[in-house]
What does this fold into?
Amino acid sequence: MMLNFDGAILLLTGLTAVYAIYRLWGRYSVEKNLYDIYYMAMMAVLFVSGVLLILFGWGLLASPLILTVTTLMPLALSLGLVAQFLPKYQKAYTIFAVIGFLAIAVTSLGNMSAKSIAVPVFHGVAGLLIVGIPLKRCLKDNAPKGFGLIGLGGILISLGGMALAFLNAGKQLLFFSADVVMMILAPLLLLMALAFTFGFMRDINKDK
It folds into this structure.
């Protein structure tokens, strides 16, 4: 069990995710927006991932099962953003996301070389949507300014994800050595959770 600074930071990350789920559920119970289901699913995966890391440590990140489960985070969040802001593309993107999840699951669990293609392609598209949609909507005043922090959260976790991917491939991204990545990963997850949660809260409270 991770009983150290990283464990405490991951615990705060989990509590942040629980708070976000609570607030999103409050809006969903009134408005029944499908995108809130996607947002809650993303935060739930973040919570579960944090708990597993506290229990079993960073070595769990090398597990193909964890890669498969955490893939749900960017896919669910990007699905929510498309459903909320680009509803005419929702059906097509849902099909894309399902195919992406299955492709990553099969290639990761089967330890196939095609994983090196599936992961960056589907994670890359989801990441572009997570960063691009909130920032673009804020610039056009179609969303509260604080909602753009969701894009910032996407950038933060993308940095951590890319650094991990390079390390798993036996390489190093810029100055992100194994020691540096392990040192910053927990704080990155917390900052990401806070950015997402604050963005959601700005959106929930925009009419108040």
